[in-house]
Each structure stands twice: as C-alpha cells, then as structure tokens.
Design a protein that fits this description.
Layout (H helix, E strand, L loop, with lengths): L1 H8 L6 H7 L2 H9 L3 H13 L3 H10 L3 H4 L4 H7 L4 H18 L5 H12 L7 E4 L2 E4 H9 L4 H24 L9 H15 L3 H7 L15 H4 L3 H4 L9 H16 L1
Antiparallel strand pairs: 1-2
Helix pairs in contact: 1-4, 1-5, 5-8, 8-9, 9-11, 9-13, 10-11, 11-12, 11-13, 13-16
Length: 259
C-alpha cells in the first residue's frame, strides 16, 4: 500500500519485483487478514490526499488488490466477484479529470468525498442486510473496510441516494426533452433536492455528468432493473455524440456550483 502511494505521489514506476510480490496470492491474502483495516484506511487517505488518487487506485486494481482494499459486505462478494474494481476505477479517473478540466478547487475534505462518491458510484444500488435492515454497500466499504469517518459514510450515502433525482431535476430545469413539470415546479424540486443534500449539493451537481458513462451502470443488477431513466443517460450529453454537448452541459452545472 505504501509503495503504491509513494509511486503515484512521486510519479515513478515501482520495481518489477515489488509489483510481482504485491500481486501474489500470498500478499492478497495477507492484506485481507493480517493488515489492520485502520492501516489500510490511513494509507488510502494518503493516496486520496495526493495529486493523483486515480493513478494509485488504478495500480491497486492492476495488482488485483482492489477487492482486498475496498472489500464489500460478505453477502455481496460472490455477486460482485473480483473485477468490480474496473468500473469503479474508471469513475474515479473520470471524476479526477472532471475537476482538473473545469479548474474547480475544492477544499480537501470535499474533494476526497467527491472522489470517493465517484469511485463507489457503480455500487449505488446495492445493499446488504444488517440487523434486519437494508444498508448501502458503500457504507460497509467506507465504515468497515476503510475505517473512515461517519461523515464520509453519510455524505456518500446521500449523494448516491439523490444523484439520479438531481439529474432529472437539472434535466427539467434546463428544459431538455419532454418536461413533465412546469419550470416553476422544476425549480421547486431543485430546491428540495438541495435541502436533502444539504452542504453536499454542489458535489451532487458535479457527480451528475458521470452518470452518462458506461462504467456508471449499477453493478449487481439485471439491465432492466438497473435502468434509471433518460435524464440520467443524458446527464452529461449522453449517447455516442458525447463531446461538445457533454462539455457544454457540464459547464452549465459547474457555473451553478461556482455561483
């Protein structure tokens, strides 16, 4: 974990012997059973505070260590398998690029929360049973696997719960497509969504464009059950056209955040 953090922080390639050892089955088992979760969380926090958390997580994924770091609830491990880190890593990379391209400077804690929400976005529809109650899979990963703080559990849970609805509201406010409500009603709903997200509403607006990416498709669900409506698909421009339309809509959302 530390070798990965330093390699991405100082932009050098780890020694091949280190990479070979890190990707071995013995190391994967040891990371899952012998290294404390607090230690894993501390090292990951250092990665997320660095200049390129996406590169660090990408390296963890390439070393087949993603499931050992971001360990899902036992009830979901067979469902997710060992390759769920692929789409999660893609979303983290997209989130990091988004922040860089728009030049938005977030406070460190908000930046970390946004990137964590982007990373776990493909898991937003998955839940597990805890004391006869359904809990988000992401909450288990943050709380139990990373031992991060309650405010990060609550922040990611809120963002994931409202991001699709926020995409629909923004879709209606812009007057895109067949709007089912008047502009006034759309703005009222936008205000309600902001109140639900509280101080995280700006991060929610930034998260919306990521919904258009194929990697953002909810994991662990049948395609028909995973469908989230046209507004989510068109959140950043959607479809094969992508490009300029996506950038234009994203800039509108960023302008709202910065304003």
């Amino acid at each position: 974990m530390r070798a990965v953090r330093f390699a991405t922080r100082f932009n050098f390639a780890p020694d091949p012997a280190i990479l070979a050892a890190a990707s071995s089955e013995e190391v994967r088992q040891a990371l899952g059973s012998k290294v404390s979760r607090e230690r894993i969380g501390t090292e990951l926090e250092g990665m997320f505070s660095g200049t390129s958390p996406a590169a660090a997580v990408r390296l963890l994924h390439q070393l087949c260590l993603f499931p050992q770091v971001f360990t899902p609830p036992p009830q979901l491990q067979q469902l997710l398998g060992s390759d769920f880190g692929g789409p999660c890593t893609e979303l983290l990379e997209a989130g990091q690029v988004l922040l860089q391209e728009v030049g938005l400077q977030l406070p460190e804690e908000e930046r970390r929360l946004f990137l964590l929400a982007a990373l776990l976005l493909p898991l937003r529809r998955l839940s597990y049973t805890l004391k006869n109650k359904q809990q988000p899979a992401s909450s288990y990963i943050i709380r139990e696997s990373l031992k991060w703080r309650v405010k990060e559990v609550e922040g990611v849970t809120a963002l994931h719960a409202h991001v699709v609805g926020l995409a629909q509201v923004l879709h209606d406010v812009r007057g895109a497509g067949a709007v089912q409500s008047s502009p006034e009603q759309a703005r009222v709903q936008f205000g309600r969504t902001i109140r639900q997200l509280k101080q995280h509403w700006k991060l929610g607006v930034l998260l919306v464009p990521l919904l258009q990416l194929p990697a953002a498709a909810p994991l662990g669900l049948e395609p028909t059950a995973a469908a989230e409506g046209p507004a989510a698909a068109a959140a950043g421009g959607g479809g094969s056209e992508g490009g300029g339309a996506a950038e234009g809509q994203l800039q509108q959302q960023v302008d709202a955040v910065q304003g």
